[in-house]
Amino acid sequence: MTTSKKSKQMITGKSFEYALLVQFEEKLKNKTNIKVIKNSAFKVARDCFKQVSNAERSEYLLSASFAINFLMDIEPRLSNDVGKNDILQLEILKDNEGKLGDVRDILVIRAMQKWEIGVSAKNNHEAVKHSRLSSDIDFGEKWLGINASEKYFRTIIPIFQNLQRIRKESNKKKKWSELGDYHASIYIPILNAFSKELKRLYRVNPTRVASNLIAYLVGNKDFYKVVKSKNIVEIYAYNLNGTLNLPFKKIQPKYKTPKVALPTKILSVDFKKNNQTTIIVTLNNDWTLSFRIHNASSKVESSLKFDINLLNSPKNLFKNTLNIVYKRKS
Q1: Which residue pairs, CB below 8 angstroms and at least 24 apart, start in 12-15?
Q2: Quick one: what percent of the chain has pLDDT higher than 90?
Q3: Which residues of 7-35 are buried (b: 16+ CB within 10 A; e: fewer)?
Q4: What is the pLDDT of residue 2?
Q5: Contact between residue 278 and residue 127 where contact means Cβ atoms under 8 Å apart
Q6: pTM above 0.85, yes or no
Q7: Mean pLDDT over each residue of the chain, to the nearest integer
Q8: Three-state secondary structure string covering the chain
Q9: Neighbours of 211 (CB within 10 A)
Q10: How many CB atoms lie within 10 A of CB 216?
Q11: 233-257 b/e (C-beta count within 10 Å ≥ 16 → b)
């Protein structure tokens, strides 16, 4: 991905986060006492929102408005407090939270009720994670809580060290396209090592590895995923621990979002058919993930990136689609 495209995706993503926060505040300020945490992440998102066009801002705000109206219907604690000291706190989280398995972008908290919900905002993409592999990243420890083996590192370290050497000797100018068939020489060996190590870790502790894989990649805290696409907004309820969709006293949510079961087994880890860059991991309870490895830059780097997508999820995962018509000026 080029720098300009990467920054554009970051700007639009952060703009949508800001639009959601603005609409949370706008729709709830007359119903309850609100405090917006104006941290560094808030300022970044606000600055990004200022950079997009007026038409884009209108789209983000309209999409966010639809989403927040629906969340208010299924989360009665957003609008209802136990008194004036029951403050609803709104915060945009810093990006490093995602590295720890918390994929939420916006956090809504009522400390007095010991209650919170989180929102993951997606603008025109649904990838669950963009995790890296390198010679010094222990994906087993980082993702699953179990250290990867020496055998895994003995396999991958020479490959990444060679990439580092190429990068250094070319003064960071060598391009991937100049390396010949790097899928066969780099991608496939790395993916084979990753697959074997994931299978080994699974044999060590099956239930923990299966559930932790989803918890780390999809999210280890319950959250709503709000996906803005052309003319629609989709809302998913990842109610993995049963903390979403709670009533407030006698006020019940207008729709039920059932608790979703985490997997307990990995059923298969295989290359995607006729594909040299993607591994498919199939788990029980209807979870399936794809791991597509790629170079994040046109120039050679000593690490590789995974574009991780959720191909299949439990049938009882709540999803609602809201149709929107944007009125753009010609």
Answers
A1: 12/48, 12/52, 12/56, 12/123, 12/124, 13/48, 13/121, 13/122, 13/123, 14/44, 14/45, 14/48, 14/49, 15/45, 15/48, 15/49, 15/51, 15/52, 15/56, 15/57, 15/60, 15/123
A2: 84
A3: eeeebbbbbbbbbbbbbbeebbeeebebe
A4: 41
A5: no
A6: yes
A7: 92
A8: CCHHHHHHHHHHHHHHHHHHHHHHHHHHCCCCCEEEECCHHHHHHHHHHHHCCHHHHHHHHHHHHHHHHHHHHHCHHHCCCCCCCCCEEEEECCCHHHHCCCCCCEEEEECCCCEEEEEEEEECCCCCECCEEECCCCHHHHHHCCCCCHHHHHHHHHHHHHHHHHHHHCCCCCEHHHCCCHHHHHHHHHHHHHHHHHHHHHHHCHHHHHHHHHHHHCCCCCEEEEEEECCEEEEEEECCCCCCCCCECCECCCCCCCCCCCCCCEEEEEECCCCCCEEEEEECCCEEEEEEEECCCCECCCEEEEEEEEEECCCCCEEEEEECCCCCCC
A9: 21
A10: 23
A11: bbbbbbbbeeebbeebeeeebeeeb
